[in-house]
Amino acid sequence: MSEGLPSNERRESLASLLGGRKGALDASLPPVAFVVGWLVGDASIGWGAAAAIVVSVVVGAVRLGRGGRIGAVLVSLAAVVVAALIALYTGRAVDFFLPQLLSNVASALAWAISIVVRWPLLGVVVGFVLGQKTRWRSDPALVRAYSRASWVWVAQYLVRVVVFGVLWAANAVVALSVARVALSWPLVLATLVVSGWVLYRCLPDDHPGLRHPTRPASPGNAP
Q1: Contact yes or no for 34/28 (Cβ under 8 A)
Q2: Which UniProt keywords apply (predicted)?
Q3: Would 96 be classed as within a structural domain?
Q4: CA dihedral in degrees (174, 176, 179, 184; nearest 10)?
Q5: Rounded alpha-carbon distances, angstroms, from residue 67 to 26, 74, 90, 131, 214
Q6: What is the DSSP secondary structure assignment for residue 5, as one 8-state letter?
Q7: Into how many domains does the chain fold?
Q8: Which of 42, 47, 84, 132 has CB 3.0 to 4.6 Å from 127, enough for a Cys bridge?
Q9: How many helices (H) and strands (E) does the chain have?
Q10: 2 inside domain
């Protein structure tokens, strides 16, 4: 079935399919701005919050100018505003990073649960990008491969949870901003590469690829 397909089509990299570098980098700028404003303002959370929101607005405007979706821009801006309000409410600069910590906890749980119920989120995301909706679930090999590769994404979120959690507990504001940058695109890239390797490693050599889900030979072989 796969003999007529180019090998590069059968083995497309997840990085080329999912991208994400610009989004990850843009998301790192407001936290850095918060810490810079906090330091310049002599540990003023108000200065930090204002700097983060201003930078978020600028980043959003640039993204819109480049054809970005307004919904995604508004969600990013809202996340920064919420983080700033939490820090202002608690009076702890380190709490600006609390939503990020909690979101990674939620993401790790969501991805793990998706694997257990055999709806691995990596398959859901890739299927959406490829316009397949849920057709990939008719392919037992793809379901199995997406499930195993999704554990790499669970590990990614757990790394952030551990690092952010330790630094948040230590009230290490500057270190958190550094970790926020270091664990954005570099970690995302590593996750894409490793999960892509796991994904294709788990597929049979003659599988036609992510774009071509196959159906089991008989109903008894369905997942």
Answers
A1: no
A2: Membrane, Transmembrane, Transmembrane helix
A3: yes
A4: -120
A5: 15, 14, 37, 21, 35
A6: S
A7: 1
A8: 132
A9: 10, 0
A10: no
**By C-alpha distance, which of 152, 119, 148, 112 is closest to 133?**
119
In this structure, are residues 36 and 96 in contact, taking their beta carbons and an 8 Å threshold?
A: no
Is position 1 within any domain?
no
For 88-122, give the DSSP string. HHHT-GGGGGHHHHHHHHHHHHHHHHHHHTT--HH
Q: State the residue for tokens 């979120």.
A: 157
Please give the residue range of the domain that contains residue 55.
Answer: 7-221
Tokens of 133: 């909706």
Radius of gyration of the chain measured on its C-alpha atoms: 20
CB atoms within 10 A of CB 162: 11
* Residue 216 lies inside a defined structural domain of this protein: yes
Structure tokens at 195: 């999960």
Taking alpha carbons only, the member of 33, 28, 15 closest to residue 183 is 28
At residue 221, the pLDDT reads 45
- The stretches in the chain having pLDDT less than 70 are 1-11, 15-16, 19-25, 216-223
Phi-psi region of 222 (alpha: psi -120 to 50; beta: other; left: phi over 0): beta
Q: pLDDT digit string (tens) for 78-127?
A: 999 999 999 999 999 999 999 999 999 999 999 999 999 999 999 999 99
Rounded Cα–Cα distance for residues 215 and 138 (Å): 5
Tell me the residue ranges of DSSP E strands in the chain. none
159 close to 168: Cβ distance less than 8 angstroms: no
